[in-house]
Specification:
With 141 residues, the chain is of the alpha+beta class. It has 3 helices and 5 strands; from the N terminus they run H-E-E-E-H-E-E-H. It binds adenosine monophosphate and zinc ion. The site of zinc ion (ZN) has 6 residues, from helix 1. One of its GO terms (biological process) is nucleotide metabolic process.
């Protein structure tokens, strides 16, 4: 646990929360300022700032939990779909610096717009970018 981290305290049960799921690695809670009805956050119990430092075991279990919760939301809340959002660093909208995955149920006319403005691409530039990322991945092996 990280001192002064609110999500460490919530995830480990030191601060009460509206918990929808808990296991040895995660707690899933309802967001305090929900974008839609049922907006939930998957919190690892261990502290990771964000995706840049999350460990492999936590990362690999994360979507198993997210999928479980998503199916339960569809069944219990009757959402038509849902968005998974995960913000990393301030530039990308992260405000709480303990890794968390947003699960946001979507309903007709829910007033939300969780999309981006599509850009344009050039095949040569795309190739260059893909190469750069690939090389960084290879260097990391
Ligand atoms: P992000 O902007 O991705 O870092 O998301 C942080 C989210 O945490 C926001 O949606 C907040 O509404 C939510 N949040 C902040 N504090 C609490 C809290 N004490 N309990 C539940 N959700 C919280
Ligand atoms: Zn933390």
């Amino acid at each position: 646990m990280e001192q002064d981290c609110i999500f460490c305290k919530i995830a480990n049960g030191h601060i009460p929360s509206a918990t929808v799921y808990e296991d040895e690695m995660f707690r899933v809670i309802l967001d305090l300022s929900p974008a839609t009805k049922g907006h939930a956050l998957v919190l690892p119990k261990r502290h990771f700032r964000n995706i840049f430092d999350i460990d492999e075991t936590t990362a690999s279990r994360l979507f198993v939990v997210a999928a479980k919760v998503a199916r339960a939301m569809k069944k219990s809340l009757g959402c038509e779909g849902l968005n998974i959002v995960q913000n990393n660093e301030e530039i990308a909208g992260q405000t709480v610096f303990h890794f968390h995955l947003h699960i946001i149920p979507r309903y007709a006319d829910d007033g939300q717009k969780i999309l981006w403005n599509p850009g344009t691409s050039d095949p040569e530039v795309q190739k260059e970018i893909a190469c750069k990322i690939s090389e960084a991945l290879d260097a990391d092996k």
